[in-house]
Amino acid sequence: MSNVVQLAGTVLTVLTLAALASPLRADDDFPIVGTYTENQVCKADGSDPGVSRVKITRHDIDSLFGLCTILSKKREGPTFMVHVECKGPGGSQMLGDVNFTPREDKTIDFSDQDQTYKAVLYRCPD
Predict the structure, then answer these.
(1) Which of 44, 49, 88, 100 is the most exposed place for a label (fewest CB within 10 A)?
(2) How many domains in the chain?
(3) Is residue 97 part of a domain?
(4) How far apart are CA 78 and CA 67, in angstroms?
(5) pLDDT (0 to 100) of residue 34
(6) Which DSSP symbol is given to 110?
(7) Is 13 within a domain?
(8) Distance (Å, rounded) from C-alpha 48 to C-alpha 54?
(9) What span, in angstroms and rounded, lies between the C-alpha atoms of 59 and 70?
(10) Taking the model in full, what pTM does it have?
(11) CATH code at 102?
């Protein structure tokens, strides 16, 4: 009987280690994926003209500034540090770093690497 208990304990340990070693689901590694409005609460009916919308996917960020491809992302505590290549108006390109910090009220603090631009992103209903 003790061999059965020992075998069961070994199997449980292996399964636990395998679960811990498995990669996170795609949504879990970048949970800020979604559509947001900048500095103003998103209206569920989409009747918020003139408000800048920001769409974040696992691969890019589309905003009034232009389309930015996510080259890499890293998480430190609650903050996601994202390295991007952006294509702006007129075909201009630039590399940069931006930070997204989710807050308890379900908004996200956004800033560029130099803190020259800051915004609060409000999630739109799916």
Answers:
(1) 49
(2) 1
(3) yes
(4) 24
(5) 94
(6) E
(7) no
(8) 13
(9) 5
(10) 0.72
(11) 2.40.128
